[in-house]
Design brief:
Elements: H1 4-20, H2 24-42, H3 47-62, H4 66-84, H5 89-104, H6 108-126, H7 131-146, H8 150-168, H9 175-190, H10 194-212, H11 217-232, H12 236-254, H13 259-275, H14 278-296, H15 303-318, H16 322-340, H17 345-360, H18 364-379, H19 385-401, H20 405-421, H21 429-444, H22 448-466, H23 471-486, H24 490-508, H25 513-528, H26 532-549, H27 555-570, H28 574-592, H29 597-613, H30 617-635, H31 640-655, H32 659-677, H33 683-698, H34 702-720, H35 725-730
Helix pairs in contact: 1-2, 2-3, 3-4, 4-5, 5-6, 6-7, 7-8, 7-9, 8-9, 9-10, 9-11, 10-11, 11-12, 11-13, 12-13, 13-14, 13-15, 14-15, 15-16, 16-17, 17-18, 17-19, 18-19, 19-20, 19-21, 20-21, 21-22, 21-23, 22-23, 23-24, 24-25, 25-26, 25-27, 26-27, 27-28, 27-29, 28-29, 29-30, 29-31, 30-31, ...
Length: 738
């Protein structure tokens, strides 16, 4: 029989064989027996003990027992340092393995420190042109990426690849070359260099399939990277297919409770979320978080947990669940800051998401402070252009909600320049979103042609990315419908809104807040067309959803009440209309203050009802003047609200017998409307012309009066139909005011 040490070494060999066959529990049992023998024969501090402990740590790492593995590597390393010195090759190996563990545990600064120490020892002992040094450089480059230092990461990866190719040959199919290529691709993807990322990944995949086989875990990791790039490029169906292939290979190889499975689940959930499959996305985010927390065991912070929480927040926000979204984003932010610090790009982005959710909740001052804080965080890191642009967009969103449109417009344009300059393609989701936001601003400014242009740009980008059946495209179509309404193209507006509504219901269900928004927009068009019962039914459905999904004091509820007031006015229910407008005004001022376009629109509406009642004309006049004052201060004179207020003042003057002042007001209104929408057929212009015809007749100018009346009748007939009340009134020279 051999000596006890022979037995121990035999057990080491058995442990290695079992390890390489994936039988980790049995491998660990063999190694524990070997360690017991070695400690008994040689004491606790021998190199043989350190060797077995090091290999036990390898096994523990494969079992995802990361904290145990780290402690075991540390113990092995301390023995090697005491016996071999601080600069031995074995110590360098231990330091490198510990760096890997710290990275997996999310402690990136500790990981970087250990990798740097390992590389310095290897360079000193082996020289720079050595495969071990190249691997150490690759590990350091990966840490630079996690720390947001992308240019350093790219430079270090290229240095590692160059060394590997010099040693292994420039056309080598060696797995080590593939590993560095794959890691480089992830950095290219992170900074938006998608074409380069895909090319490098394709080279990596070919090497891996030849050297490792098509079902290796490395192949799965590369497929995951390619799936994420396809997702970034908007090729979402292809992305999900590739990611599912990666998931199948990974689960077959290492089981479901593994760090690689977590990364693929999160990538797949992101793609499903972008496709609008929210329940599937939430399920995968939740599974990823649960697996990662199970692996860590002690609630240790890790970026993958933060990514899962952030993903859940995005889904909840899309569903209108702002409170849940804010909780998710805040939890994710706490994890990011603890895991990687405030200097990391993902931490700053998550802070922007917290602030953006606050904007949606009407907490504008808090939101603006947090966006500015995120901007400061980015100054301490190599913030990429797309991250800076995202911060600009989010900050502009706050100014938009506050009614500071020129400030918002400037920031959106600045963001768009960054996005287009630093992207390899103009077809990215971020670019489409910025065009859409620009369209919103131009619409609020009354610049409808510019708004149409921006929305069409957004639609083209999104169609190229996703095709016609996507939630993001449904939002742009809804916005197009709103502009067409203002231009008087009501049937075209309804088609856009119906297309948008159909897609939203398909992906979100009938009771989603986005569905409510589309219902409210369609109701407004029906009100303009005189289809009042349909309009009121839609507003009620809209309000029902909003009251369930949001609190009863949201800006969206206020806008729905304003729409209902317009229908009640058209139905002749003036007292009910005034009450709806007053309720809307109270909520609006509570949410955004007095100096906001929504307040101006409500003042305009109240003035219109008072004129219809032919009472309190002084109060009606003050309402119109208030609407004009707010609008001029915010966006200037050339705006639809100013035009409508001037027409309202004309109505007040007409009812007061001041027909010359009335005519002057109507002409000013017509001039503004023509600037905004052009000289073509428009309902607002037709309404103004009809009002002008009434006062012109009173002023003894029947020829010009008749010309305006006929123009108005023609437009009313074409747009509203021959049986509409406005058309019937305009059909005779003695018709009543609208």
């Amino acid at each position: 029989a051999g000596s006890p040490m022979d037995t121990a070494k035999g057990l080491d060999g058995v442990g290695k064989v079992l390890y390489y066959h994936g039988k980790y529990d049995e491998a660990n049992t063999a190694l524990e027996k070997s360690l017991t023998i070695k400690k008994r024969e040689l004491g606790d501090k021998s190199l043989e003990v350190a060797t077995t402990m090091h290999f036990m740590a390898d096994v523990l790492q494969k079992q995802s027992k990361l904290n145990e593995a780290l402690k075991t590597y540390q113990s092995s390393c301390e023995i090697r340092k005491s016996l071999q010195g601080q600069d031995s090759s074995d110590v360098a190996v231990s330091l490198g393995c510990m760096g890997v563990l710290y990275k997996k545990l999310g402690d990136y600064q500790a990981a970087l420190t250990h990798f740097e120490q390992s590389r310095e020892i290897f360079e000193m002992r082996l020289g720079k042109d050595n495969l071990t040094v190249a691997v150490a450089l690759m590990n350091i480059a990966n840490l630079f990426k996690y720390l947001g230092k992308y240019e350093e990461a790219i430079r270090t990866h290229l240095e590692s690849i160059a060394i590997k190719k010099r040693i292994l040959g420039s056309t080598s199919n060696h797995p080590e070359v593939a590993k560095s290529l794959g890691n480089l691709a992830t950095v290219y993807e992170k900074v938006g260099r998608f074409n380069e990322a895909m090319e490098v990944n394709q080279e990596c995949l070919e090497i891996q399939k030849k050297s490792l086989g098509p079902k290796s875990q490395d192949v799965a990791r590369t497929l995951k990277g390619m799936g994420m790039i396809l997702s970034e490029q908007g090729k979402l169906s292809n992305a999900v297919s590739v990611l599912n292939e990666a998931l199948t290979i990974t689960v077959d190889s290492v089981g479901r409770k593994h760090r690689d499975v977590v990364a693929i689940l999160i990538a797949c959930a992101d793609a499903l979320y972008l496709q609008g499959f929210h329940l599937d996305a939430l399920s995968k985010f939740s599974e990823a978080i649960a697996i990662m927390r199970g692996i860590l065991g002690n609630n240790r912070p890790h970026v993958d947990i933060a990514r899962g929480l952030r993903g859940q927040g995005n889904v909840h926000l899309s569903q209108g669940n702002e409170t849940e979204a804010l909780t998710n984003f805040q939890e994710a932010l706490d994890v990011y800051v603890e895991a990687v610090g405030k200097e990391h790009a993902d931490s700053a982005l998550c802070l922007d998401l917290v602030a953006s959710t606050m904007t949606k909740m009407g907490k504008f001052d808090e939101a603006l402070k947090k966006h500015l804080e995120a901007k400061e965080w980015r100054k301490s890191t190599e913030a990429h252009a797309k991250d800076v642009a995202a911060n600009l967009v989010y900050t502009a969103d706050v100014y938009t909600k506050q009614g500071e449109f020129n400030q918002a417009l400037s920031l959106y344009n600045e963001a768009l320049k960054l996005q287009t300059k630093h992207s390899s393609t103009i077809n990215t989701p971020a670019i489409a979103q910025t065009h859409n936001r620009l369209g919103i601003i131009y619409k609020k400014l009354g610049k409808y042609q510019e708004a149409l242009h921006e929305y069409e740009q957004a639609k083209e980008v999104l169609y190229a990315l996703y095709g016609s059946n996507h939630l993001a495209l449904s939002v742009v179509k809804m916005n197009l419908g709103n502009v067409y309404q203002h231009l008087g193209h009501y049937e075209l507006s309804l088609r856009c809104h119906q297309d948008s509504l159909d897609v939203k219901k398909k992906f979100l269900g009938d009771k989603n807040i986005e569905v409510a928004t589309s219902l409210g927009n369609m109701a407004s068009v029906y009100e303009r067309l005189g289809r009042l019962d349909e309009a009121m039914d839609m507003f009620r459905m809209c309000l029902e959803i909003q009251m369930v999904k949001q609190n009863g004091r949201s800006l969206e509820v206020a806008r729905t009440l304003r729409g209902m007031g317009a229908v009640q006015r058209a139905q002749g229910l003036y007292d009910e209309s005034i009450q709806s407008y007053k309720d809307s005004r109270e909520i609006t001022i509570e949410r955004v203050g007095n100096n906001h376009l929504d307040v101006a629109q409500i003042a305009l509406a109240i003035g219109g009802v008072l004129v219809k009642q032919e009472v309190e004309l002084d109060k009606a006049e003050s309402m119109f003047l208030e609407a004009m004052k707010i609008t001029k201060e915010l966006v200037g004179e050339d705006h639809q609200i100013v035009a409508a207020a001037m027409r309202g003042l004309g109505d007040v003057h007409r009812e007061s017998g001041k027909v010359e002042l009335a005519l002057k007001s109507y002409r000013t209104s017509a001039s503004i409307t023509e600037k905004l929408v052009g000289p073509g057929d428009n309902l607002d212009m037709a309404a103004t012309k009809y009002s002008m015809s009434i006062v012109l007749r009173k002023l003894g100018n029947p020829e010009e009066a008749e010309k305006h009346r006929l123009d108005a009748e023609r437009v009313f007939t074409a747009v509203l139909g021959p049986e509409h009340a406005w058309t019937l009134r305009a059909s005779t020279a003695e018709g009543e005011a609208l």
